[in-house]
Structures are given as C-alpha cells and as structure tokens.
Amino acid sequence: EQHLPQGYNLRPLEKEDFSRGYLQTLETLTSVGDVDQEHFNDIVDYWKSQPKTYKNMVITDYESQVVAVGSLIVETKLIHSCAKVGHIEDIAVRPDQQGKKLGLYLIRQLIELAKEEGCYKAILDCDPKNEGFYVKCGMSRAGLEMEYRF
Amino acid sequence: EQHLPQGYNLRPLEKEDFSRGYLQTLETLTSVGDVDQEHFNDIVDYWKSQPKTYKNMVITDYESQVVAVGSLIVETKLIHSCAKVGHIEDIAVRPDQQGKKLGLYLIRQLIELAKEEGCYKAILDCDPKNEGFYVKCGMSRAGLEMEYRF
Ligand SMILES: CC(=O)N[C@@H]1[C@@H](O)[C@H](O)[C@@H](COP(=O)(O)O)O[C@@H]1O
Ligand SMILES: CC(=O)N[C@@H]1[C@@H](O)[C@H](O)[C@@H](COP(=O)(O)O)O[C@@H]1O
Fold first, then answer.
1. What separation in angstroms does the CA of B113 have from each of B52, B70, B119, B122, B143?
2. CA–CA distances in Å: residue B98 to residues A65, B67, B106
3. Quick one: which atom of ligand 2 is closest to the CA of B91?
4. For chain A, is the Cβ count within 10 Å smaller at the N or the C terminus?
5. Which among A90, A130, A133 is the best mutation to test ligand 1's pocket, defined by most ligand atoms within 8 Å of the CB?
6. Is the pTM of the predicted complex or chain greater than 0.90?
7. Minimum CA–CA partner of B29 in chain A
8. Which CATH homologous superfamily contains domain B9-136?
9. Would the CB atoms of A145 and B144 count as touching at under 8 Å?
10. How confident is the model at residue B2 (pLDDT cuts 50, 70, 90)?
11. Which residues of A39-54 are buried (b: 16+ CB within 10 A; e: fewer)?
12. Residue B88 CB–ligand 2 contact under 6 Å
C-alpha cells in the first residue's frame, strides 16, 4: 500500500488550481503555451460538463500547491460487451518533488479509478525511456503508439 | 487521392447498422460479446449525446452492408494552448473486403476529421505487426502503449 507524504492530498482539479501552479507542473510534461485564467476556466468547465468522460486529478502539497497532475479519460466502447477503457493522460510531477513516489501513487490511483468506473483496462502512451517506471506501476507493454501531426 | 469502390460510402454510424453487420465487422478486431439491439442503441445514444467527443464512422458496400468501421474520440486538453487530440479507435475491415484499400481510406478520413476538429495530432495504438499499414497511412511511430488489465 502506497502513501502520500504528510500534508499531501489527491483530489479532483478545481479552477483555483490555476493560481496554485497547475500549468507550471503540467509544463514539465510538454509545452502548455499561453493559457490564461479564462481559458483555464473554459477547459475546466468543459471537462466538468462531461464528468463520465473526464476525470482530472491533482496532488497538492502541505502548502496546497499543485505538485503532480494526471487525467483519466473514460471511453465507452461496443467491444467486450459494451466495455469501457480508461486512457491515462498528461501525467506530470514537479521536478523538485522527485523521490517521493508521487508519480507511482498517482498512476496507481488513476488505475484504481478506471477499475471503479468499470473499465476492462487502463492504457497510456509513453516514451520508451519511461517504460520501466510504468512497469513499476504494474503495467505492461501492449503495443505501439502511432501518430500523425498537423 | 484515395477513392472508395463504386457504390461504397463512408458515413456516420446509425442505429440501423446493427442489422447491417456492424458487430460482425467489429468482431474481426476483437471479441464483441453479447450485444443485442437494445444495448447497441444505448451505446449509440450515449455516443450521440457527446457529439464533440465521439465520431463513429462506417463504410458500407453497394448493398448497404457495413464492411469497415472506425471511431475518432476527440480529447480536449490544456497542453499546447488548449489543444485537442484525436484518438483513432476500433478499426475493423471485413476480411472478405481485403484488397480494396478500405482501411487506408478509413484511416485517412479519420485523420482528416481530426484535422477539421482542430486536433494538433491524431494517434492510435496498434500491434507492432500493423505498424507497416499505419506507416502507409502517413503515420509514424511515436511511443509505447502500456496497459493494465482488470
Ligand atoms: C502517460 C502520459 O502522460 N502520456 C503523455 C500524453 O498523455 C500526452 O498528451 C503527450 C503529450 O506529448 P506531445 O506534447 O508530444 O503531444 O505525452 C505523453 O504521451
Ligand atoms: C487502431 C486500432 O483499431 N486499435 C485498436 C483499439 O482501438 C482497440 O480498442 C483495441 C482492442 O483490443 P483488446 O480487445 O485487446 O483490448 O485493439 C487495438 O489496439
């Protein structure tokens, strides 16, 4: 059983996380670009309008700052008797928080959430250099990610 | 420029596709299980209630039978200035329709749809043995798919 450090919490994303470092944390994954509070609110509103699909989580520290972020996108399918798949997306941990196993905790909780939502599997795409980390989270290699960029 | 054979059409999924071989076509990808017309309608209704997220397409032949299926799931993100990603899912072509390049046409159209929806990329997960096919569709390898099965 995995635990968070004292004073740390995992909870759903809130609009107030804009001023608690949400985007700065996300920026450690990839380019976030120009997103002001208004854009941020629009996206959070959109996500909250589809609560069965979008589940966006944050880990905060003892000062309520966002130190890790991650999302679960629940996709409803016809295959496997109308089953669901959980897509784990946009995982980021603030670099100065390494060594606290926040990423491991977050992934395990997102997998647990996918299970609670009735998914038959949880999947994600990653750089081959991160395979070892995801294996530590209990996942295994399933296939290749192919892309077309515009 | 790619074309469909005479009398073939690409269009959005309809409930009537239940009796036109939708599930039999999908079955060539993976196990579909026990899905009756009522279950099918429920899922189609659910997809149609989220039209910005779920785009489910079929190719029909000159007898209006479903010969290929594929879906685009549009995910709204915060990264890249609130960009979208198109997830290409559940691609299947009826085995007796091989050689007509239906799969190639379908993938290209789903990529085009992702572009029209404003996605910055279209991605999919596949078995390594299908990499060559997706490269022919203009895609390239981006990463690994990791999974956790319940
Ligand atoms: C498990 C995880 O966090 N995977 C992320 C994915 O969710 C994210 O959307 C993408 C952005 O990369 P990009 O900026 O190169 O498109 O990177 C990784 O694949
Ligand atoms: C491009 C494409 O069609 N990829 C499919 C994916 O969409 C589908 O959901 C999965 C089902 O496999 P499963 O039955 O082993 O979970 O197979 C492939 O990865």
1. 12, 12, 9, 9, 23
2. 55, 10, 13
3. 3
4. N
5. A90
6. yes
7. A79
8. Gcn5-related N-acetyltransferase (GNAT) (3.40.630.30)
9. yes
10. confident
11. bbeebbeebeebeebb
12. yes
Chain A nearest CA to B8, separation (Å): 24
Q: Which of A35, A42, A75 sits opposite B73 (nearest CB)?
A: A75
Look at residue B1 in the predicted model and tell me its pLDDT.
Answer: 60
Q: A41: which 2 tokens? A: 């609110």
Residue A1's pLDDT is 60
Q: Which residue of A has its CA nearest to B73?
A: A75
- Taking only the tens place, the pLDDT of each residue in B76-130 is 999 999 999 999 999 999 999 989 999 999 999 999 999 999 999 999 999 999 9
Q: Which DSSP string corresponds to A59-72?
A: EE-TTS-EEEEEEE
Q: Which of the listed residues B79, B141, B147 should we mutate to test ligand 1's pocket, taking the one with most ligand atoms within 8 A of CB? A: B79
Pick the residue from chain B with its C-alpha nearest to A72.
B75
Q: Which residues make Cβ contacts (< 8 Å) with residue A99, sequence separation at least 6? A: none
DSSP single-letter state for residue B4: P
CA angle A134, A138, A142 (to 5 degrees): 70
Q: What is the mean pLDDT of residues B42-57?
A: 97
CA B113 from centroid of its chain's CA atoms: 11
